[in-house]
Design goal:
3 helices, single chain, DUF1488, 5-stranded mixed β-sheet, Shew3726-like_sf, Double Stranded RNA Binding Domain, 90 residues
Amino acid sequence: MNQSILFPDVQSWDQAMQQIRFPAQCQGALIECTVAVTVLEQIANQQITNEEEAVSIFSQYRFDCEELAEQLIEDEAYNALGQIELTVSN
């Protein structure tokens, strides 16, 4: 794990976008990371039907999500909004 990338134990639910948002800090810069429910379902291999399930499953798979985000940050794979958007390959 790259010690220069930190993940505070904070997350929020974005109802409109159906995604979890969580911050990362890299060399002093705050980076917003997002994981859509559909991606979280793939990571957890289960269906998510509401906000409570999404937050609970994110908490269970947080380390996996942080590892994916860390790799994307290192690769500088930001989206058009400057966010790190988690994806999974099939």
